[in-house]
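Hi D.,

Good news: the full-assembly prediction came through. Inputs first.
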Amino acid sequence: MKDRLLPYWLLIPAFIIVLATTIYPLAYSFITSFRAWDLTKSRRPEGFVGLDNYLYAAGESQFLNSLWVTFVFVITSVILTVVLAMALALLLRRKGPMHTFTRIILILPFAMSPALIGVSYRFMFNPEFGVIANGLGAVFPALQGVPWLADPQLAMGILVLTDVWHWTPYMTFMCLGGLASIPRETEEAARIDGASNLRIVFGIILPQMRGVILVMAVLKTIFALKMFDQVVTLTGGGPGTSTETLAYFIFNVGFRWFDMGYASALAWILTAIMMFISIWYVRMLLSERKMATA
Amino acid sequence: MRKTLAYLGERALLALISFVVLFPIAWMFLTAFKQPRDAYSLSLIFEPTVQNFVTVFSEPWNLGSMVLNSVIVATVTVAIAVPCAALAAYSFSRFRVKGRKFLFFLILSTQFIPAVVIVLPFFLMFRQLDLLDTRIALIIVNLAIVTPFVIWMIKGFIDAIPTDSEEAAMIDGASRLRVIKDIVMPMAAPGIMTSSIFCFILTWNEFLFALILSRRDAVTLPVGLVSFRTERGDLWELMSAAGVMITVPIFIMALFIQKHFTRGMTAGAVK
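Then the structure:
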């Protein structure tokens, strides 16, 4: 009797934490998303307004802009991170003191606070005394005096750069894990037959890494959708609203304008997007595992 | 000839990667030891000073209280999350009970919820309870982010431990709890240690919650960085000094678990 219930008893502490810290707030914000609640006017939630908050979002240009910004950011950062990580992993899987050294220091960007990364890059791209801004200006005269973070496209580029710098190491470690688990025989046989490196990578290694690459892409998509810290410390959403991602827009609506109803609705739109991706992700993992055990 | 060229190319590439990784970090460390006038020049030759560190630890910046907040919030979060997560991870790993898949899915999917969604209701709740700007508030919300993550990680480590010795001990009459305490946990200790450090790093670097839920008393290090943006402009040399204070402990921890990194991070995700 006691033993039969033990599995549940072991789950209870963690489950209470998850219930109290995520399920409850989620439910709360779901209900709030159907209400009008301007915190500057009222301490308590006002009446229910049905789908008004969601309908309002559908027509608001700033929300639509943030969706577009998020989309551009996610696509570029996911593609760059995954491709770079794969390339790095292929390079780093060999043995050698320099390889080992690079592998060790790769953990540093990942351990660095994203808020601090934003601050550092803001400093380095400062047109007057930024070391990267000046360095690029010295090497390429055409880039002298470019107002990096004051230009919408360049600001987005630097935002992507900070994110790629932060996440590529983690993804490289995932790739290395994946590479270590695929058998080397086919590759060696192909090498003996005189196949070129390119053919080995594209014809033999990458097809076997399909699963890992898929997992990486989905995970990175989720991390990119959540990215928030660097927007605050690097660009502040600017110039204008050119780097205002959905997460940052929700933050503004909720904690600058204190429109709790609208912010909750926006937050749920973001949650819905992420839930959709994560359900797809878990399903994919389950089917991969089935394939692996079959 | 072609071989040496490829060899040199590979070395050059590795050197370039190391440079890209290390340069922003090195620049921050250098700036932290520069006098204000040197911080705004690009020279590598300067008279090093520790004045910036003295400044950030005194009025009005008071980095000391932020360090204390960060240490307390991260430590308490780890101390609550890891034991609870370890028990849950064991249960998920060893028992095939009803509803297990659903529960695991539920816990995993909460990891994908954007923090900004969670913080909104918490802000309202803490306001009602008068808990805004307290460390307790930060610990509670941080648990939301790290707990599912740590369950996932520790489960990966426990899955890798063979069940033979557990079964043998149970046949000898040891209770399940004893088995967990005396056999499983010691074997999973390196994994649990790695997960704890990870959990610590995540909480230490956490920014969004602290930005919204703290004003003055409970401000943590990453949020403290923002306060160096003043009317006089950004005080880069002080920001860098604060940056060094944020990164040094975390870098030491990260290098400490570097070996387990690949395994720990990928165990849950790939398997």
